Amino acid sequence: MAEQKNKDGCAAKTGKGCLGFLLGPAMLVGAVCMLFQYEGEYVNISRALDEAEPLVERVADIAAPSPAHEGKLVYVRGQASTTDILRDEKYGVEANAIRLNRFVQYAQWVENKTKRSGSEKKPMFMSEYEFNRNRDSEWVYSYQRQWKNKPVLSGSFYDTRYRDANRVFYEEQNLLLLAQHVQLGGYRLNPDQIARIGGKDEAIPPTRIPPIVQGRAALNGKYLHVGRAPEGELYYGVNTQDPSIGDVRISWKANKPTQLVSLVAVQRGNSFEPYTATNGVNVDLLYTDTLSPAQCFEKARSTNTAQLWGVRVGGWLMLWGGFACMLSPLAGMVPFCRKLAESGATVISLLLGSMLCLLTIGAAQLFVRPIAAICLLLTAGALLWLSITLRRKAAAAGRVGKKKKNLNNQIRS
Predict the structure, then answer these.
(1) Hey, what's the torsion of the CAs at 56, 60, 63, 65, to 10 degrees?
(2) Can you give the C-alpha Rg of the chain in angstroms?
(3) Over the stretch 51-97, which tens digit does the pLDDT of each residue have?
(4) Which of 102, 134, 275, 318 is the most exposed place for a label (fewest CB within 10 A)?
(5) CA 330 to chain centre
(6) Considering the entire predicted model, what is its pTM?
(7) Residue (of 272, 261, 266, 273) closest to 299 by Cα position
C-alpha cells in the first residue's frame, strides 16, 4: 500500500463547482422521480397482497395435481428437487444442483481518497509525522491491491506510479446456470420460480485447465488461478499466495439439488403461474423455508416495506447530496468565516433535502393516504420555515462580521 497527498487548487475548486451545478439538479430530479414512483408501487403491492391472502387454498397432497384446485390460488409446501446435471464444460465443472454459479475476480490496484482535517484522528496506516504535516483540507490517496469482481480503470489515478498500472491478462465472464426441470411433488416449477430458489451454496473445485491458459494457470483448491500473459516465448509463473496485478481467479458454487420451499401461486395444470390482482400486480411467492401461508404474506409485506424504506433513505441522501453539490461551491467563495459558511451550507442542504423528500412522499400519497400525506406536508412546511430562519440568521451573522472587520480596519488605520 502507498499513499499520496495533494491540496485542491483554485482550478480544481472551480471545476468541482461547475460539476456540482450540473450534477446537483440531475440528482434532485432523479431522486424525486424515484421516490414518487416507488411510493405508488408500494401501495399497489400492499393492496394486491391484501386481496390475495383470503383467497389462498392449502394443498395437502402434492403427489399429483388436484383438479379441484385448477385455476385457484394455492399454497404448496414440500421438497423441490432436480436430477439435472449443470455443467460448465469449458472448465470441467459439473454438479447435480438447482443453481451453479461461476465467479471471476481480478487482482487490481484500488484507489482510496479521503479528506482529513485538523480535528480528525490519525489513520492507523499513517505515521505521526505525515499526519501532522499539512493537515488542513488535505486529500490523501492510498492504494491497495485487492480482488475485484471487475477490472478497475486506473487511467485517472492521482499517483502517476499507479496510473494505467491495472491490467487484465485473461478475461472471463460470470456465469449462472439453472436447472431446467425442478419438481415439487407432482408439480413442475416455472423458470422464474426456479431462479428464486435459495439455499446454501457450496464450493465446486475445477477439474481441468482450458487449453487457452495452459502453462500460465494453476488449480488451487476451489480456485483456478490464471497468471501473467506471455512475453515472447516465456510464461511467467503464477503465485496463488501473492498474485500480481492482472492475475485472475475463478471459482464455482452450487446449491443442493433438493430444497424445502413454500409456494403461493395459481395452479395451472401441473405447474404454477402468478395471481394477477385487480390493480394488475402479480402475486407469486416462493421462499426457501418452511412457512405457513400467513408467514409467506407477512414476509412479502416485510420485504415490500424494507424496499420502500431503502428507496426513501436512498432518495433522501440523493436530495441532500444534490443540494450540497449546488450550495457547497457557493460557501467556498465566501471570503471570511468560510468554515462557518460551509457548515451552514451542509445544514441547509440537509434541511432542504429533507423538506423536498417529505413533499414528494406526501404528494405521492395524497390520493391514497390523505391523513398521512397531510402530516408529511405540514412537517415539510416546518422544515422550510426552519431553513429560511437559519439562512436569515447566517446572513445577519455575516453582515455583523463584515461590520466588525471594517471597524477594526478603521481603528488600525
Answers:
(1) -30
(2) 30
(3) 999 999 999 889 999 899 999 999 999 999 999 999 998 888 999 99
(4) 134
(5) 31
(6) 0.73
(7) 261
Q: Dump pLDDT digits (tens) for 169-226.
A: 888 999 999 999 999 999 999 999 999 998 889 999 988 888 888 878 888 889 999 8
Cell numbers at residue 160, please? 502517476
pLDDT by residue (tens digit) across 258-272?
A: 999 999 999 999 999
β-bridge mates for residue 267, sequence order: 272
Whether residue 274 contacts residue 48, with contact meaning beta carbons closer than 8 Å, is answered with no
Rounded Cα distance, 43 and 304, in Å = 9
Q: For residue 145, which phi and psi values (nearest 5 degrees)?
A: -90, 120
What is the separation of C-alpha 76 from the centre of its chain, rounded to a whole number of angstroms? 33
**Cβ neighbours, 10 Å, residue 84:** 17
Could you give the CA distance from residue 4 to residue 141 in angstroms, rounded to a whole number? 5
Q: Domain map of the chain by residue range?
A: 6-46+303-412, 66-103+173-290
| Angstrom distance (rounded) from CA 150 to CA 103 | 10
Q: Which one, of 317, 361, 331, 383, lies nearest residue 28 by Cα?
A: 317
Q: Which residues pair with 202 in a beta bridge?
A: 254
